[in-house]
Write the structure tokens for this entry.
Amino acid sequence: MRLAIKPILFAARIVVAVSILALMYGRCYALHGTSGIPLHWNDAALQGIRDAKLGAPVVARALAIVHTCMYDAWAAYDERAVGTQLGGALRRPATERTLANKEQAISYAAYRALVDVLPVDTNSVYMPLMKQLGYDPNDNSTDIETPTGIGNVACAAVLEFRHHDKSNQLGDDGQDAPAYDLDE
């Protein structure tokens, strides 16, 4: 019985953490006029989690990856923020630090991350959201002079790192363990 409670408590902590993130995004919007784009992508991630029916550790990892990709894409458009994988290498000049560019970069990063870590809703949730926001989900540009390229490159760097973090997401770590242990 005690073992069954641990995953429930862990999942409850994740829900609380995501709720806090949502409140923080809402507060940022109220204080700074920041876009609700991260909230749209967070909602998409939560739908992917519900539909994938993954274990709590996999859910926590997926959320961390999606939010890290979004942060790294946004960081390129901030004068001081530093991306987790590429540092300040993607930093854009002040004239390009517009809300539209941030939204586009964040959207491409979130989309790429979700397709990778929670692919179950690619066609039913993530692609339609990209199209609703006016973006082409098939645009794989790596041109870091564009917001699309910033989002794609920032996310690719995070995913490259996470694909080799010993979680065995890809099932290629050479051990007998399956790709992700979904029950743990």
The two ends are 15 Å apart (CA to CA). The chain has six helices and no strands. The chain has a mean pLDDT of 84. The chain has one domain: 2-162.
